[in-house]
Fold these 2 entries.
Entry 1:
Amino acid sequence: MAIHKLLLLPGDGIGPEVMAEVDRVLAFFNKTGRAQFTTETALCGGCSIDKHGVPLTDEVLGKAKAADAIIFGSVGGPKWDKVKYEIRPEAGLLRLRKELDLFANLRPAICYPALAEASSLKRELVEGLDILILRELTGGTYFGEPKEIVTLEDGQKRAVDTTVYTTREIERIARVAFDLARKRGNKVHSAEKRNVMKTGVLWNQVVTALHAKEAKDVELHHILADACAMQLVRNPKQFDVIVCDNLFGDMLSDEAAMLAGSLGMLPSASLGAPDPKTGIPKALYEPIHGSAPDIAGQGVANPIAQISSFGMALRYSCNLPREADMIDKAIANTLAAGYRTGDIMQPNMRKVGTTEMGKAITTELERLAG
Ligand code: NAD
């Protein structure tokens, strides 16, 4: 049996609290022999600044490069608000994404039936929702140069961000979209702003050409990014996979996240190019929520997004789809049994803390394993 080598980077705030529940789930798999993992835990973010003066040391970066997958918690908090911009906690995560060339960000928005009432949309619009937003993560407006604020002769300031995409960058993210769609509902919506942006024109052309060349079996729709934002709240179940650039993906994935009810529920994956030998990409898995300093240390954080992120690692890095399905089922069943952390609490449900939720999910895993 393959032994999967995981690097755990719990980070700051609630990161270590929710990561402890991933440890519990890992121990279940190791104990039952359904899968074998070795894990190492290291510092990234504010905790690394405190110890080493930087948010990510070269040593930890080396471990990240050698791991089969990185399970990331969350970084940051008011304690580090005043550190220099270059060494802020988030710079550790950005360096990991850049060094491992993690260009594809997968953000599922799943609405568990038991939580349909927690969404701000009507139950019938979101119940059973399962869509995947695929965001290009290493190009576009956040990285394009020039990126600057200059002072003009009359004392006014002028700020510039630049949106840049090349054929290769668009092709590789579109290819991931078509591959993922084949394993799901076989439908891709490509969202851009070709009506007002040159990058949108190129995006549309490249996706269309790649579809004709490699993915005729997948249903492809083009949609303007603003129309996509509107359709996400009007009729979200029409979508399967939505692929878009870095900036639009940032907005659309946050919007889609809220369809599912709570930040504490949603995982994400950031993938690089598949390894030519194994076909398995470099990858980092993390919840979409931050370090939640307002509730850190109280044992009340919802660990589901973190456990679900580990589930995505089983699917995309460890080739363990059945075990990933088991985790999803155990979470759904635990919610159906009425367990709720504070962020998803509903009337007549059983309010639990981080540890109790993690234990309930693991107990359900044991039951499912028979
Ligand atoms: P946040 O996601 O940490 O918190 C937003 C709200 O959601 C808070 O009220 C919080 O209590 C709640 N929440 C978040 N996760 C929860 C969970 N698992 N269970 C229950 N409630 C939960 O966002 P923020 O407050 O904007 O940011 C806090 C810090 O996290 C900042 O320093 C920010 O830079 C950082 N951050 C880091 C990442 C990351 O590491 N990838 C992502 C986002 C924010």
Note: The mean pLDDT is 95.
Entry 2:
Amino acid sequence: MESKLKNLKDSVLKDLAEIKDSQILADLKNKYLGRKGELNELLKSLKDLSVEEKPKIGKLANEVKEELVVLFSKAEKIISGDKKESEDLDFDPTLPGIKKEIGHLNPSTIVQYEIEDAFLAMGFSIYDGPQLESDYYNFTALNIPDDHPARDTQDTFWLEGDNLLRTHTSNLQVRMLEKYGAPFRGIFPGRVFRYEATDASHDHTFYQLEGLMVDEDINIGNLIATMKTLLSAVFRREVDVRLRPGFFPFVEPGFEMDIKCLVCSGDGCSVCKQSGWLELMPCGMVHPKVLEAGGVDSKKYSGFAFGLGLTRMTMMKYRINDIRLLESGDLRFLKQF
Ligand code: DAH
């Protein structure tokens, strides 16, 4: 029965395709849909079907009937010369097309690209390096020997041997100096890992962007100017910065760089906890021991380095209040960017 219904529809379609005159069309309609037409004949045998089959086939028969009615009424309109209606049956070029879903960049990737562009314009190059790192490049070469308390501040995922998941992108400082020597200008964006419990502002995986510039006569003024250029590229306006002393074994002097709060412009609000300033990134002048570890003459060259929290900066820029969203892969979140 099911196939009979389908055959019926096929033969209607075939017949309709050849019709040129309204009389033949009327006869055809009668032949298929008339009181004694083929469809009604078929429906008579519904009563012979089993209880399970009856509703299923009944439904199909109704659908076929509805389709045939529509087909005939369209054919009637075409034959009677209702041009507008017949055009409607064709293709309507004014209908909007089906929208294709396209992927979205993670907001930290967007910020990363903006920062990269700003640094490329200042003559820096972009480098990548290992996430699985040795104790040496992550700590010792950065003037953090075995017994140094600074190790405790970076909760580390230790691996077999002397290996670890890098806790910061500073691991590339000495690698790059060893490989390229001085003068050097580079940034190293990438993933870093910390062994810590997660909450709205901590995650075990996040992104940093390290910068290193080494040349003759590099001073703190160069560091500040470079940072201000970068910040106006990201926040698209002039930003005020200030330096406070900060301690990191691989820089001397070391600083914490703050920016004037972007929300209240320094007046004090809940975002900056009424201080007017937001802590942005640690930085400093590269420690001579680090230059020497990279094979660079520290009497001739000096440099600055900074460790920008890419994830943190992204959260500031887009006012994202939970760090875990960034690595969640949640499309509802990602589609907003
Ligand atoms: N690597 C440090 C961290 O992850 C941040 C840092 C501090 C990087 C000072 C630097 C720097 O380049 O100069 O906590």
Note: The two ends are 54 Å apart (CA to CA).
